[in-house]
């Protein structure tokens, strides 16, 4: 017999009854039933119930066992009494009577329990991640992640994409986030960068004549953490194609992503119609460029109903250029109690509140409007708003005003909250939409023109489009939204040097700077570059949605905490003096 096991802990069934077997695994829990000891023995594959009574040679050793001790058990497989069968376990028809026990790895007292799924402080869970990973839910999440990546690879190869690997140590590149810099020992004073994405390399692969590329690519960005984003590194399905337009990219990636959600979505409905929504429309209707379309609410502009009205706050606001008032319809939300809850939500978001109108049945049986807004603008304007929004008795509408860029984010969050509170959001499905026609440029906080998306994108209209107002230029850029998350980002690339120089010039990069920072790509484009485009899908976020988790750290094996620290490996750590001397670096004291 093998030194450690003849079977794993998920193997044994009624067909093995009477056999002498050997199992190894972790002690999940020990139960004492008055002279009979039961051990739930767990390994990667499952759980087997082991028992010993006072006649068993293993009994004395079993009495000493602590949870999570690693043991080897020899014993006989017995059928359970019919009343004791556990239908939830593949091994639930049998138990193993232990005849010999050996401790392979002793366990100290646990800093967090593995048995059960009780909540525990995240800092403790990350410090002892090797224990946390033994817990059933997290273990299953990591296994799901592995299967998703396996399925991605299979689907991409089936669609004639070829997998290539690109460098991990490279040059700094503006990808919208901060680089992680790596000092060079051989070139003192110079630094490499960890790639924010394989952007330039995948474009060069197209220039080199390889037609369809993909990679499960590690990406590194020095970002502030969020629940749906890792602060240091993440993995993406990276892909690029030659001689394609936007619709070709969509047609290639949709079957891959749709197939993943159908395969691993646990029976939830997967939307097969993926609409194209222009960025401006998404911000207007949903207050977000990653809208949750499971929620049917669409915001509308209602400025004309407030212009010159008795509702002074909005009337005066609308006298300023660039301002508007938007309504968030709330079907079935026509109660004062709900309006108070939404105002409390708005105050949590830093607003004084939201205006609202409630529609009810009046004493005469006719529909009537209630609330401070209705009183101030009068019945005619109120009725016009109701008609525009398509609302009726028992419904409500909430209002926000100002410059759109100042209130859109809050409006989008309020829309999501209203959809959840009123039960309008269908939680049992995945709804996708391509967000297209992103603006190429935006103004930063100092009023300077900068790229708003991927700097290597082709502007719609080519070189001619770059001769007018930069803020009016749209790019061939696109994101895929699913249930309120951005899953994919991509673009048709700018493959012409003259357009590339002009595009970067508008963002403040002179020709010399472009040559210095992107010389390899500029040089390549001068030797025959095909039209090309692609995208990248966030694997961590896809698995997070499939696992029905709200925190991305629940689907990453060894994540950082919210402060970008690895509590288990104690990173980042201070370098030794010898390392610093080799790199010719000095650390400034903390201010």
UniProtKB/TrEMBL annotation:
It catalyses: tRNA(Asx) + L-aspartate + ATP = L-aspartyl-tRNA(Asx) + AMP + diphosphate. Keywords: Aminoacyl-tRNA synthetase, ATP-binding, Cytoplasm, Ligase, Nucleotide-binding, Protein biosynthesis. It is found in: Cytoplasm. It comes from the Bacteria. ATP binds at residues 221-223, 486, 538-541. It holds the Pfam family tRNA-synt_2. CDD domains: AspRS_core (cd00777), EcAspRS_like_N (cd04317). L-aspartate binds at residues 175, 221, 453, 493. One of its GO terms (molecular function) is aspartate-tRNA ligase activity. Its main location: cytoplasm. Aspartyl-tRNA synthetase with relaxed tRNA specificity since it is able to aspartylate not only its cognate tRNA(Asp) but also tRNA(Asn). Reaction proceeds in two steps: L-aspartate is first activated by ATP to form Asp-AMP and then transferred to the acceptor end of tRNA(Asp/Asn). This is Aspartate--tRNA(Asp/Asn) ligase. It comes from Paracoccus onchidii.
